[in-house]
Automatic annotation (TrEMBL):
Transferase found in the keyword field: yes
Protein name: GNAT family N-acetyltransferase
Organism: Candidatus Sodalis endolongispinus
Record-linked Pfam families: Acetyltransf_10
Keywords recorded for this protein, A-Z: Acyltransferase, Transferase
UniProt keyword Acyltransferase present: yes
Recorded superkingdom: Bacteria
InterPro entries, per the entry: Acyl_CoA_acyltransferase, Bact_Acetyltransf, GNAT_dom
N-acetyltransferase domain location: 1-149
């Protein structure tokens, strides 16, 4: 069993490592992982300009989601589950949190996700619909499917 709660500032370094370990599970090489490090690093400012939720069990961090809300639109900036705890419903729980948090924060139109191509099946399973793709800002040449959930 796991619980969801708000992230704490002293956990940001640990959450960065969780994201990197989770991303590495897809088998990206060192060069790509190096490109991702900047993008996946949580900073104190993230606590102020976004909502961050963690999944934990027995004081162990198992997953994290970060949501940015810009007026009526929300953007799921990150969703990562610890490698050893994937396929156990944590991603689904954090995705559910992001929808509820978007509503609570006043987003009324859509939730957008620029997904890792290897996570596309998960977002489809969550009911998101693909609408095009965008260039990755960190990995040259990588196209990321853009998913949309109508709020
Ligand atoms: C994508 C990710 C968040 C999914 O989290 P998870 O905890 O493993 O997912 P869940 O166990 O909650 O899965 C929910 C459902 O989605 C399905 N699913 C999970 N990952 C899937 C995938 N890659 N492709 C297709 N279906 C997937 C599960 O089978 C499950 O289906 P069910 O409802 O029929 O049982 C996780 O694999 C992850 O952290 N990946 C690495 C990092 C990453 O790329 N994150 C996304 C950045 S955009």
């Amino acid at each position: 069993m796991h619980q969801l709660r708000e992230a704490r500032i002293e956990e940001l370094a640990q959450l960065t490592e969780l994201c990197l370990q989770s991303k590495a599970l897809w088998g990206y090489d060192d060069a790509i992982m190096q490109c991702c490090r900047q993008e996946l690093t949580f900073r104190p400012a993230d606590m102020e300009n976004s909502l961050i939720c963690v999944a934990e069990s027995n004081s162990q961090l198992l997953g994290v989601a970060q949501l940015q809300v810009d007026d009526e639109e929300a953007f799921l900036a990150r969703l990562f589950v610890s490698p050893a705890r994937q396929k156990a419903g944590i991603g689904k729980a954090l995705f559910g949190w992001s929808i509820k948090a978007a509503h609570r924060a006043g987003a009324a139109t859509r939730l957008l996700i620029d997904a890792d191509p290897l996570a596309a099946g998960f977002y489809q399973r969550m009911g998101a619909r693909q609408e095009g793709s965008v260039d990755s800002v960190t990995v040259p040449g990588l196209r990321m499917p853009r998913f949309r959930v109508t709020l």
